[in-house]
């Protein structure tokens, strides 16, 4: 088979100014780069005068260079017009206009077989518009934002329009496929390919040593959550359980790993909640850490807790398991597809304080088979997904040739 030329279109992608943004997209697509030639186009929202906002919010919309080279792969960051809070239904059209110039140039220089987009809106809609005008194959990966967008009367028709024009859709979980079909997408246009984990990057460290690195007593009980500091991730729900948990586990430590994201930053709200509940001495904010440093806090923990309101496929669940740490997660999105056995964790109803408290209590006291948890993660390595993706991309191009 000849090597394909794939253009990846995703507004969420790591850059020199947002190093943690969209790592899961890069993890998958840079591995696709082993069997295809890829180039990334990651449109960045911009509007005249946004520098004024940075006087009040210094980290507002940081602007990367127009082009970066990451691990030998070129990543473009064209700007598209996006006015905060206004006309967001035009984001797809604006993104298409900005990205098309770059993709046309790539096509002229090297040829393009497939435009592979991530998130249906606005990225997927932009990709289908570009692909239609250039007569290219186009795929969309559904990653979780589709749930909230499907409830928006302005955005739902845009989702359906993108799915109608796409040649194929990839869902990171069965739940996302079911959602899309339930609101009108064609059933035969989907393939489910879950995210994976890099078990070379996320690896178990002896718990005693990991705790020493973090200055945590070896006889403490430790739980951890990793994610952007936004309300959706549910840190506040875990903190709300702590006064009761401390009655049983007086040396309990809760590690919060994460920082500001495109969705916002509620760190001060969380710290205020800790103060009001009198648990601030038991909660540690470690800030945002690069992936290569996460094995230490993940290995130090007894359990990982994700009380999230919405997920497509949370990579951090498998990353935790690769470090031998079981996971307690809410029954949203694809969480129960990852935590699919009580040997690796527990799924609880969303926003059920009693259920979450009970599960954490049980998880902290349970004698987990951590070797089995690590083996489960190893069986979900990123490389196990590549054959399926390669076959899909090759079949799309073969259809075109025929």
TrEMBL record:
Transmembrane spans: none
Domain Glycosyltransferase subfamily 4-like N-terminal span(s) in chain numbering: 86-201
Coiled coil: none
Domain Glycosyl transferase family: start-end pairs: 208-378
InterPro entries, sorted: Glyco_trans_1, Glyco_trans_4-like_N, Glycosyltransferase_grp1
A UniProt-annotated Pfam family: Glycos_transf_1
Full protein name: Glycosyltransferase family 4 protein
Organism of provenance: Aliiglaciecola litoralis
């Amino acid at each position: 088979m000849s090597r394909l030329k794939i253009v990846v279109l995703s507004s969420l992608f790591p850059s020199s100014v947002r190093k943690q943004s969209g790592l899961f997209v890069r993890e998958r697509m840079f591995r696709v780069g082993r069997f295809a030639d890829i180039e990334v186009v990651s449109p960045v929202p911009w509007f005249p005068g946004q520098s004024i906002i940075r006087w009040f919010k210094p980290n507002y919309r940081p602007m990367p260079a127009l082009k970066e080279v990451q691990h030998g792969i070129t990543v473009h960051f064209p700007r598209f017009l996006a006015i905060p809070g206004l006309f967001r239904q035009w984001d797809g059209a604006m993104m298409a206009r900005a990205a098309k110039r770059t993709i046309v140039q790539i096509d002229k220089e090297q040829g393009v077989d497939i435009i592979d987009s991530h998130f249906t809106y606005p990225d997927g809609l932009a990709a289908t518009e570009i692909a239609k005008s250039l007569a290219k194959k186009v795929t969309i990966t559904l990653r979780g934002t589709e749930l909230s967008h499907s409830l928006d009367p302005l955005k739902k028709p845009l989702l359906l329009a993108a799915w109608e024009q796409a040649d194929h859709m990839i869902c990171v979980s069965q739940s996302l496929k079911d959602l899309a079909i339930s609101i009108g997408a064609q059933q035969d246009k989907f393939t489910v390919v879950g995210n994976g984990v890099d078990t070379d990057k996320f690896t178990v460290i002896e718990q005693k040593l990991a705790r020493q690195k973090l200055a945590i007593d070896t006889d403490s009980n430790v739980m951890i959550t990793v994610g952007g500091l936004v309300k959706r991730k549910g840190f506040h729900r875990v903190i709300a359980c702590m006064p009761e948990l401390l009655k049983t586990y007086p040396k309990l430590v809760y590690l919060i790993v994460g920082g500001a994201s495109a969705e916002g930053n509620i760190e001060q709200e969380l710290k205020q909640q800790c103060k009001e509940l009198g648990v601030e001495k038991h909660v540690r904010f470690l800030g945002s850490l690069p992936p290569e440093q996460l094995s230490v806090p993940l290995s130090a923990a007894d359990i990982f807790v994700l009380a999230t309101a919405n997920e497509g496929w949370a990579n951090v669940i498998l990353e935790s398991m690769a470090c031998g740490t079981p996971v307690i997660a809410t029954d949203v999105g694809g969480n129960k597809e990852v935590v699919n056995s009580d040997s690796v964790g527990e799924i609880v109803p969303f926003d059920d304080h009693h259920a979450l408290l009970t599960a954490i209590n049980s998880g902290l006291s349970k004698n987990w088979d951590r070797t089995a948890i690590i083996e489960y993660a190893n069986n979900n390595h990123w490389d196990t997904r590549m054959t399926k993706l390669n076959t899909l991309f090759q079949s799309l191009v073969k259809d075109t040739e025929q």
